[in-house]
UniProtKB/TrEMBL annotation:
PANTHER family associated with the record: CHITINASE, CHITINASE 12-RELATED
Superkingdom of source: Bacteria
Reaction(s) catalysed (UniProt annotation): Random endo-hydrolysis of N-acetyl-beta-D-glucosaminide (1->4)-beta-linkages in chitin and chitodextrins
EC numbers on record: 3.2.1.14
Top class in the EC scheme: hydrolase
Domain GH18: 22-308
Gene3D superfamilies in the cross-refs: (Trans)glycosidases - domain 2, Glycosidases
Protein name: chitinase
Biological classification of the source: Bacteria, Pseudomonadati, Bacteroidota, Bacteroidia, Marinilabiliales
InterPro entries: Chitinase_II/V-like_cat (IPR011583), GH (IPR017853), Glyco_hydro18_cat (IPR001223), Glycosyl_Hydrlase_18 (IPR050314)
Length: 308
């Protein structure tokens, strides 16, 4: 414990300007866009639309997402929030390898991304390559992030990255960190029959690992799931909103019929850890899995109440 606190203090000392602001970052997949409203945006600081498809030549498939982006923009005209777009993700990362490996295609992708950000007044982009397979791809990924930063930074458009919680990912991020505004730690899907897939222990270990690699604490965002994963049948998941009778169904440990969930209790514990160690904030996958955020048992509402 002492060594963990020491690492936190050292990280803060090396990045005095970066302070925790209790930021709340929420991902919005295409399937959940129409569930988002002004009440949702009141409770978050950044919405990340997931996401835009990209072909192997670096061209963005904007037509498929145009209506979604227009809708989210209409909501933020009423309730202001930073809006970003994610590229990649599980099953959508095939474009990264060919695009990152080519100087010409990296340049084209960067120009296309800038144009998208200008057209929709985006405050940032998010990258989620799951996952580079070798050292060459890791190097190419770093090159892409650097070039994107050079193109976007003059327009005050930031870059965040979604990453797994293991050591290799921490090492990769340490090479990109100067070009990133935030690192969204996917601290979930680590199935443990006893502690669940998104335990408090997992959060502590992941944060310690990334800080050990020199990542400033203020750039780290702890990922929390708004869904449960089964303790024995790892492929089975359930959205929080699908649990009947939320008042009495989920145990204090977060268990419901074999599924582990974050609860208001575990979220408070994680948020206390975030605040005490001056991390950047909390990241949610995904907002559409919650019940209406104005209801007392809403997970987003629990996060918001802690931050008040």
């Amino acid at each position: 414990m002492k060594s963990l606190l020491y690492l936190f203090v050292m990280s803060i000392g090396c990045s005095f300007a970066i302070q925790s602001q209790n930021k709340v970052v929420g991902y919005i997949p295409q399937r959940s866009v129409k569930a988002i409203n002004t009440e949702t945006f009141k409770r978050i600081t950044e919405a990340i639309y997931f996401g835009l498809d990209v072909d192997e030549n670096g061209k963005l498939d904007i037509e498929k997402s145009r209506d979604d982006l227009n809708y989210l923009d209409s909501v933020r005209q009423i309730q202001a929030v930073d809006l970003s777009v994610c590229f990649g993700g599980w099953g959508r990362s095939d474009f990264f390898a060919p695009v990152c490996a080519s100087d010409q295609m990296r340049s084209a992708f960067c120009k296309n991304v800038l144009q998208l950000c200008m057209d929709y007044q985006l405050q940032g982009i998010d990258l989620d390559w799951e996952y580079p397979k070798n050292e060459a791809q890791l190097n190419d990924y770093v090159s892409l992030v650097k070039e994107l930063h050079e193109v976007l930074q003059p327009h005050d458009i930031g870059i965040s990255i979604a990453v797994g919680f293991w050591d290799k990912q921490a090492g990769l991020v340490s090479r990109m960190e100067p070009y990133l505004k935030g690192i969204n730690l996917m601290t979930y899907d680590n199935v443990s029959p006893c502690k669940g897939h998104a335990s408090y222990t997992l959060v502590k270990r992941a944060v310690k690992r990334f800080i050990k690699h020199g990542i400033p604490a203020g750039k780290l965002f702890v990922g929390v799931p708004f869904y449960g994963r089964h303790r024995w049948q790892r492929q089975k998941t359930m959205a929080y909103r699908e649990v009947p009778g939320l008042d009495n169904s989920i145990s204090k440990k977060g268990l419901y019929k074999g599924y582990f969930f974050d609860t208001s209790f575990t979220l408070k514990r994680k948020q206390t850890f975030i605040k005490e160690n001056r991390l950047g904030g909390i990241m949610i996958w995904e907002l559409g899995h919650d019940i209406d955020c104005t209801e007392p048992n809403s997970l987003l509402n629990a996060i918001d109440e802690f931050n008040k």
